[in-house]
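Contributing new records

If you add data, match the layout below exactly. Sequence lines come first and carry their own label; structure lines follow with theirs. Keep one chain per record. Anything else will be rejected by the validation script.
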Amino acid sequence: MAVSKVAVHFSCSVEQVWNTVTDLTHTAWRSDLARVEILDSTHFVEHTKSGYTTSFTVTACEPPRFWAFAMENGNMSGAWEGSFEAEVGGTRLTCTETVAGKHWWMRPFIPGYLKRQQKRYLDDLRKELLK
């Protein structure tokens, strides 16, 4: 199982970061997604632009401080946690992602994949928050 943790500062309020990250009806800012399908209050499915789907189950929601979910697709299963903290000049978002590959041959590639995914997500988020 691979774990990647990254903390990033945004020059805006905790509420603004929280609202952007957790609003599943407005995900056009995500460069990797085609759409998000909301199934109910705790389940949703992300559809990538390449047609791949990942299912999510919200495991914790404490607005505007903490959001966590389990995730699964054909290649991996895991969890994501986001901690939103006010700090001088803005907000610190700490993302922790834990992923296990479902195929033995994928295991060496998971850490690099996680780093790239987190970087892309946070770059997209920064662009959205600067609008």
